[in-house]
Design a protein that fits this description.
Elements: H1 11-32, H2 36-40, E1 43-50, E2 55-57, H3 58-68, E3 72-86, E4 92-105, E5 110-125, E6 128-145
Parallel strand pairs: 1-6
Antiparallel strand pairs: 1-2, 3-4, 4-5, 5-6
Length: 173
């Protein structure tokens, strides 16, 4: 198997690894901004997602998230330690993504934090990489009451919920 750990990966392998990582970033951006089109673009239409409370078609999972995530005022998926291995034929890949997600409840000042991993299978079709299968693995979680505010006046800043859902706004103001 041709992997990123190979001391001399090919340019094609490096580009494939980055494309797989970009699919994971699209997922995170889409779910946090309640942007179903961006989130859907991370998965192939015939892809699957096993998120414990939902197991099935990945595009159906997107719709599940668009309603399920409204219980939080905001969410922030932080993904890191993203290891990707590309198959020898350069058409499939496997990945493991570490994930810490903060979710502020909409109805009370409680911050839920999720610790876990995504186990992904990627596939390239017509030059594009997307997630074909994803399994969400739970490592731990916490819920913590959050006192009001920081010692600065944060009210002067744009508040994160102003663009949730993003209504197709890609990046920037």
């Amino acid at each position: 198997m041709n992997t990123i750990s190979n001391p001399t990966p090919t340019l094609e392998t490096l580009l494939a690894v980055e494309a797989c990582r970009e699919a994971a970033r699209r997922y995170s951006h889409g779910v946090d901004r309640l942007d179903p089109d961006t989130m859907r673009s991370a998965y192939w239409p015939d892809g699957t997602d096993d998120h414990g409370t939902f197991v099935g078609n990945a595009h159906d999972f997107v719709e599940h998230c668009m309603t399920g995530h409204t219980r939080w005022a905001w969410t922030m998926h932080s993904i890191f330690n993203h290891r990707v291995e590309i198959s020898g034929d350069g058409r499939t890949g496997r990945g493991e993504v570490y994930n810490v997600t903060n979710l502020m409840r909409a109805d009370e000042r409680v911050l839920d934090t999720w610790y876990g991993r995504y186990l992904d299978e990627y596939e390239q079709r017509d030059g594009e990489w997307r997630i074909l299968h994803r399994v969400c693995v739970h490592e731990g979680d916490t819920a913590q009451a959050v006192p009001d505010g920081m010692p600065i006046d944060a009210a002067a800043f744009r508040q994160g919920a102003f663009d949730r859902p993003s209504n197709g706004r890609r990046f920037g103001p």
